[in-house]
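Continuing from yesterday's entry. The apo prediction looked reasonable, so today I'm repeating it with zinc ion included to see how the binding region is handled. Same sequence as before; SMILES copied from the compound registry.
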Amino acid sequence: MAARFEVTASKYRPKTFDELAGQEFVVSTIKNSLKNGHIANAYLFSGPRGCGKTSAARILARSLNCLNSGGGSPCGGNDAEICDNCRSITSGSSMDVLEIDGASNNSVNDVRQIKDEVLFPPHSGRYKVYIIDEVHMLSASAFNALLKTIEEPPPYIVFIFATTELHKVPATIKSRCQQFNFRLIPIETIQEILKKICAENNIKAEDDALFWIARESTGSMRDAFTLFDQVVSFSLGSDGVFIQSSLIREKLGIIGLEKLNAFAEACALNDAPLAFSLTDEILSSGVAIEQFVIDLSGYYRSLLLLKNGITRESLLGYRSALFSQKALGTYDSVRLEQALDILLDCYRDMRYGVSPRFELETAVSKLTWLTKWVSHTELKEALDKTRGITIPSAQQTQSQPQYQQQAPQQPQSQSQQQRSGDGRSLTDEFNRMLAEKGKNVSNNSGDNGYDEDVPMWSKDAAPRDAASRDAVSRDNTSQNAPQVEQVLNIIPGTVVQ
Ligand SMILES: Nc1ncnc2c1ncn2[C@@H]1O[C@H](COP(=O)(O)OP(=O)(O)OP(=O)(O)O)[C@@H](O)[C@H]1O
Ligand SMILES: [Mg+2]
Ligand SMILES: [Zn+2]
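Holo prediction written out below.
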C-alpha cells in the first residue's frame, strides 16, 4: 500500500519549545519554571484555533518525562534521535501521557474515571500527565468533580487543559491553574515558516503568494498549513511545484489588487459604466459576490488606514505602494469611511434582499458618486458657517442645550424652518448672506430662474443621503437651491457643478 500523504500541519507540528512560533511569552515562562523545578498542578492554555495549544501541551508533557531534558526543553530531532519516553509520547502510546477530548468525555462519570486513575503512579516517566483538550465542553458537574483533584493531586500528576473558549471555563477551575494565553501568530512569522518549508521541500514560491496564504489564515498556523497544502496540490507543473499569485487567483477565484485598483479608480472618476462593467467582468471570472464585497471592503479599509498614516503591510494586506494613488488622492477619510459603510451594509443586506447581485450593484452605484457624498456633520458645519456660528465643543454643547435650537442639523421645510435667535428663517439668513456678497438671488437671469454662475445643483450633483435628499426636495420648492449650493460649496471634498 502506498504511504499516505502526511499533511503539512502534522508533519510540522512543533516538537520543542523553540519550534513553537509566535508564543514567546508562554515559551519563556514555561521554560523558566521547568528549569527551576516549579511544576504547577494544572496548566490552562487558551487562545484562538490552530495557534499551538495542543502542541505546547504535548511539548510540556514530553519535557516533564524526557530522559534528556534535564528540566528544560525535551529532545528534538527525528524519531531515531529522541529518547524512549519522547518517542512513546509522540506516537501516542505512552501510558503516562493521556490525551482526553473534553468534547466527548464531558460527563461526571468520565471525570470519576480520571479520579480513580490518578491514584496509580506513572509507568515509566516522572509524571503522569492528563491533557484535556476543549476543556470548556465539560459539564458543570464534571468541572465540580475535578476541583478537588486539581487542587491537591498526587505529586506525580500534572493536568494540562486547552481551550479556545476561556470564558466558558468556570472561575473555580481557572483559579487553580497557571493560565497561558496563546496569541494569533503574526503574518510575517507565518510567511517565514512557509518559506522555510518551501526551501526544505524544493518548492518554488512567489513571496506575494506566500504572503497571501499567511494573510488568509488570519493568525492560525494550522489554517496556513491547510491552505498551503491546497495551493501546492494545484501548483504542480512539469518542473515541480511553483506557487504563484496568478494561479491562486485563477483557481480560488480571488480578485487581484490590480482589479480592485481599477475599480476604485473608476469610482473615483465617477465613471459608473466602467465600474459596472468591471464588476461584471470580476463576477464572470468566477468570483463569488460575497467574496467581491469582502475584498472591496478590505480594499477601502486599507485606503482608510493609509489615509491615517498606517503603512504596515500586515495590516494593509499588500505593500502600501501597490494601492492606487489616484483613488487615495481623490478620497478623504470621511468618504472612505462612507465607502466602507456602504459595503458593510451591502454584505448584511445581501442575506435578506431580493438578489445579492442587486445589492452589490446598488452599492457599486453608490460608490461611483462617493466623491459628491456629504456627511451630516459636514452639512451642519457648512450651515453653521453660513450663519457665522462657530461650532461649540461637545462639552459646551452639553452645557448649552439651547444651541440645538440655534443650529439645526439639516435644513427644514419652509413651514418648519427653525428660527434663528432674532426670529429670521434660514432662507432669510441665506439671502442676507448672499446679499452681503453682492448677489441678488431673487433677480436671477436664465431660464431656470437661477443665476448661471450658480447652476442648479440638483441637476447632476444631488446628494443621495436621506437628509440631503429631503433638503433638495424642500428647497427646490422653496427656491432655495442656490443657497444650499453655496452651503455645499463650503463643504470640503464636495463637488457642486
Ligand atoms: N505556534 C505554532 N508554531 C508552529 N506551528 C504551529 C503553531 N501553532 C500551530 N501550529 C501548527 O498547527 C497545527 C495545529 O496546532 P495545535 O493543534 O497545537 O493548535 P491548537 O491551538 O491546539 O488548535 P485548536 O484550538 O484548534 O485545537 C500543528 O500541527 C502545527 O503544525
Ligand atoms: Mg488543540
Ligand atoms: Zn526525550
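Comparison notes:
- The pocket of zinc ion (ligand 3) is lined by residues 66-68, 74-75, 82-83, 85-86 (CB under 6 Å).
- The chain is about 50% helix and 5% strand.
Will overlay with the apo model tomorrow.
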